[in-house]
Amino acid sequence: MEEIRLQKYLAECGVASRRKSEELIGQGRVKVNGETVTQMGRKVSLNDIIEVDGKPVKMEERKVYIALNKPVGYISSVKDQFGRKTVLDLVKDIKERVFPVGRLDYDTSGLLLLSNDGDFTYKLTHPKHEIKKVYEAVLKDVPSKDDIKRFEQGLWIDNYLTSPANFEILESDGKTCKVKITIHEGKNRQVRKMCDKIGCPVIKLKRISIGDIS
Ligand code: URA
């Protein structure tokens, strides 16, 4: 975090107005890293320990929420062992340390959330919350009614039975089809594996919404 003036820091922490904070400093009631500060020019950062009347004062880091339209060709992690571009390369002007909320494959595009809010991340990614995720996909071939039923009722992938999903054909030219898929889980490459399972591999995949965010 950048450094800011002590009185601004105190005001942003909600201790008092900036003017009142200056008075507190002048009265010798404010300490920075154990030392009483009475001069106004002092600058501080999140790394400093600030006390007023012997009580610690902490600034909450600003919570940041980003809805990113991820292009294909970016990895949705903070670092990549193979040196590929990561989604953090797309949000370089954000000062806070944000993390991807869940994942999107390297070759999938669309909605990826980024945040520094751990509670928000937990609520959106923990399986018990069953947050709805909607994808648009182009598939090779066109599934039969039976295949669609199997897809919606649950498929065995990697020794795991998928929970109920929704599958809707939007367009078809007989050889490929464009579909809308809704799942409530987020296993690794789940949509691709489910589509493989019904014999219609994914050609293109894009996430269009997560819960109420689209
Ligand atoms: N399912 C997939 O197969 N890939 C994604 O990126 C997201 C869901």
UniProtKB/TrEMBL annotation:
Its EC number is 5.4.99.-. Transmembrane segments: none annotated. It holds the Pfam family PseudoU_synth_2. SMART domains: S4. InterPro entries: PsdUridine_s_RsuA/RluB/E/F_cat, PsdUridine_synth_cat_dom_sf, PsdUridine_synth_RsuA/RluA, PsdUridine_synth_RsuA/RluB/E/F, PsdUridine_synth_RsuA/RluB_CS, RsuA_PseudoU_synthase, S4_RNA-bd, S4_RNA-bd_sf. Keywords: Isomerase, RNA-binding. Gene3D superfamilies: Alpha-L RNA-binding motif (3.30.70.1560), Pseudouridine synthase I, catalytic domain, N-terminal subdomain (3.30.70.580), RNA-binding S4 domain (3.10.290.10). Residues 4-63 form the RNA-binding S4 domain. GO terms for cellular component: cytosol. NCBIfam families: pseudouridine synthase. Belongs to the pseudouridine synthase RsuA family. This is Pseudouridine synthase.
